[in-house]
TrEMBL record:
The protein's name in its UniProt record: DNA-N1-methyladenine dioxygenase
UniProt keyword annotation of Glycoprotein present: no
Organism expressing this protein natively: Halospina denitrificans
PROSITE patterns named among the record's database cross-references: FE2OG_OXY
PANTHER family, per the entry: ALPHA-KETOGLUTARATE-DEPENDENT DIOXYGENASE ALKB HOMOLOG 3
Length: 193
């Protein structure tokens, strides 16, 4: 499914993995990753993030955002084949993953762009969703009334193209609906790594 976002085209691929493979990968991610609820600083105040996360990357590839520095968990061998398939689908060679765990509808991620300097000027981001379906929203950075909402179902891959992050923000809002836990893997390429 393609979505138009200003000058950019978003691609959402449903049923990216085989159903059984997606189920097993979700179980593995839930049980085998060292999930942490880190703390971030917003406007000078420290808060626990409303989700758990795990930064997966090569040795020494730290990642800084919102006042936190994430030290990497090494790549699990069983995740590598997925990184290769997702790199192929997105036309980019990803070398790192930010994994997010939304335990229930009160877990969320606020408005941001994936525009950290480590990612270079025009990063391509590929985001694999597993588990409970959640709503995902975009808004234009210059005109916040321009928005787009889409649902990210279990076993879907969203590809955000080069150039999108400098013009659009995204968020994963909280929901009052009962939702199953959701794991999201955002594949990234750290430059100069
Ligand atoms: O959970 C999601 O779908 C989005 C995660 C995200 O935006 C990020 O990790 O930068
Ligand atoms: Fe993001």
């Amino acid at each position: 499914m393609h979505y138009r976002l200003g000058d950019h085209e978003l691609l959402l691929i449903d049923d990216f993995l085989d159903a059984e493979e997606a189920r097993q990968l979700l179980e593995r991610l839930l049980h085998a990753l060292p999930w942490r609820q880190d703390r971030i600083t917003i406007f000078g105040r420290e808060h626990p993030i409303p989700r758990e996360q795990c930064w997966i990357a090569g040795d020494g590839m730290t990642y800084r955002y919102s006042g936190q520095t994430l030290t990497p968990t090494p790549w699990p061998h069983w995740l590598r084949p997925y990184a290769e398939r997702i790199s192929e689908a997105a036309g980019e060679t990803f070398n790192s993953v930010l994994a997010n765990l939304y335990r229930d509808g009160s877990d969320s991620m606020g408005w941001h762009s994936d525009d950290e300097p480590e990612l270079g000027p025009e990063p391509i981001i590929a985001s694999l969703s597993l588990g409970g379906e959640r709503r995902f929203r975009f808004r234009n950075r210059r005109d916040s009334k321009r928005t787009l909402s889409l649902d990210l179902p279990h076993n879907s891959l969203l590809i955000m193209p080069a150039g999108l992050q400098s013009q659009w923000q995204h968020q994963l809002p909280k929901t009052r609906k009962a939702v199953a836990p959701r794991v999201n893997l955002t594949f990234r390429r750290l430059v100069d790594a």
